[in-house]
Amino acid sequence: MKLEAHSPTKSRVQKKDAVLITTTGTMDRGAFDFHTRISEHEGDIMSVATREVVTVPPTTKIIDAIKIMTRKNFRHIPITDAGTNRVEGIVTSFDVIDFLGGGDKNQLVEKRYKDNLLVAINADVSTIMQHDVISIRSDGNIKEAFDLMLKNNIGSLPIVDSSHHVHAICTEKDFLKFTAGIVTNKTIADYMSKRVEKASSDMTISDAAKTMVMNRFRRLPVVKGDILLGVVNASSIMHFLGSGEAFEKLTTGNIHEAMDVPISSLISKDVVWISSDADLGKASELMVKNGVEALPVIDDGKLCGIITERDILRAMAE
């Protein structure tokens, strides 16, 4: 199914089960300065980091790493030496769909494992991990971590000691909490992505994954005609495998049996959306509350853009 693109004015949100957030609602009032708020915690990255960090050794099977990420609802997992806990790599949900869905790493499935999903997912996680890991010392400061993530366009930052042992992890969501519920005096309209790539409801998971990897997108709005059904992201596809649902589609073990089902089958949550006149602080609040990394932007019943965690953090960095 061909991806429908460059048509932000054609899609209407599905009114049933939708959650709308506009500029109305309870928010903290007063002047807001993101840099000042970061400076209040200067020198203490551990004060905002996620301390519940789970690591796995490079010899962990890919499927076992996926199951851990699914169970813990993680988008990133550091790969560390089993004996020293020194960081050696990192795997993200995007790496997983690259492996399964048609990116460079998918060539391993096709060529080395002859499209056999069961064999491929039992390979070592080191096969798909990113080896060049950007990290920060545990005595570093918040501003340094924030700048590193934005400069390198990454969604997480392992926090290590002087021996590179992993102690915690800092993610985009951790920084998003700085702005949640605060009036930033910055509207979504000025920072959202107006060019929205969409997936039709009958597009296969495989084709959706290929579209994400090719365009470096982590999520795709899913539409049926001009109705927005929801948003599917890289983690949704990863969870499809980690939950075991994918294996119910297998008869011969070929990966296409699992991945050639409609992407709409992965939509499990209500549509959560926001209007373009809302403040970025309200978007942050909604993302944190609902555990989502992006919000479709709906004006007058039409899909006109999408706002992501990274969009908000870049806006705050100005």
What does this structure look like?
By secondary structure, this protein is of the alpha/beta class. The protein has 2 domains: 4-31 and 180-317, CBS-domain, CATH 3.10.580; 41-176, Roll (CBS-domain), CATH 3.10.580. It is 31% helix and 20% strand. It has 12 helices and 14 strands. The strands form 5 sheets. It has a 5-stranded mixed beta sheet. Helix 8 links the parallel strand 9 and strand 10. Helix 3 (93-101) packs parallel to helix 4 (106-112), helix 3 packs across helix 8 (205-215) and helix 3 (93-101) packs across helix 9 (234-242). The longest helix is centred in the first third of the chain and has 11 residues, at 62-72. The chain starts with a strand and ends with a helix. The model is unreliable at 1-11 and 15-31 (pLDDT under 50).
Layout of strands and helices, then pairs:
Blueprint: E1 4-5, E2 12-13, E3 19-21, H1 34-39, H2 62-72, E4 76-80, E5 87-92, H3 93-101, H4 106-112, H5 117-120, E6 136-137, H6 142-152, E7 156-160, E8 166-171, H7 172-176, E9 197-200, H8 205-215, E10 219-224, E11 227-233, H9 234-242, H10 255-259, E12 272-274, H11 280-290, E13 294-299, E14 302-308, H12 309-317
Parallel strand pairs: 2-11, 3-12, 6-7, 9-10
Antiparallel strand pairs: 1-9, 4-5, 7-8, 10-11, 13-14
How would you summarize this macromolecular structure in one to three sentences?
This protein has 318 residues and is α/β, with parallel strands linked by helices. It is built from twelve helices and 14 strands.
